[in-house]
Amino acid sequence: MRLDPPLDEGILLARYKRFLADVRLPGGEVITVHCPNTGSMKRCVVPGSPCWFSRADNPKRKLPGTLEITTTESGHLAGVNTARPNPLAREAIVNGIIGELGGYTQIRGEVRYGDENSRIDFLLSAPGRPDCYLEVKNVTLEVGDGLITFPDAVTTRGAKHLRELTAMVAAGHRAVLLFCLQHSGAARAGPADDIDPAYGRALREAMAAGVEVLAYGCRLGADEIAIDRRLPFDAG
Hints:
16% of the residues lie in helices and 41% in strands. The chain is globular and about 60 Å long. By secondary structure, the protein is of the alpha+beta class.
């Protein structure tokens, strides 16, 4: 995904009230930008470190920009805008980067499904093939040795999605959970059992029931963010 205009660089001073972040610009001015991440952003917020943000093109918006990339405790880059993975996934599917999801002729987003009033990120379909229900997650929590885990905070919503995906498999469809690792140090992915053990158990149960799990890494930069490589997933 080409970013036009490219992201602006600044120094991250603080993230607070969950959705706000203060950034110091190269000239010394401090601005407040939107932080589009409901998680803890654990190990992704380092006061005084470089960050990158997109400028708002809507003059009616209260805040002038959106926090996109931060520097982690280990010095890597992390994509913290949780609105990015869905368009990144769509682009990667269309361009054949995610081979496991190739061959579908229609991609629909935000389709209602299931018994718990959910919306699936993508519904992939093609004549003569079972529908594929695809859920996409942004993953940034670094544990060490290239392991990036999900979630970074307790997620009842994530467990709900796993139940819905499992139900789709039982109904004869295909269900896939795609972990989008927006982290420059990513080498493999896994569940964050120390953060949310219930999610880890639910994930393993879903996998045992036929839900497929894919992990893909991204390249991150001021002018481009893109899914570019398959990574191993270790359920533990």
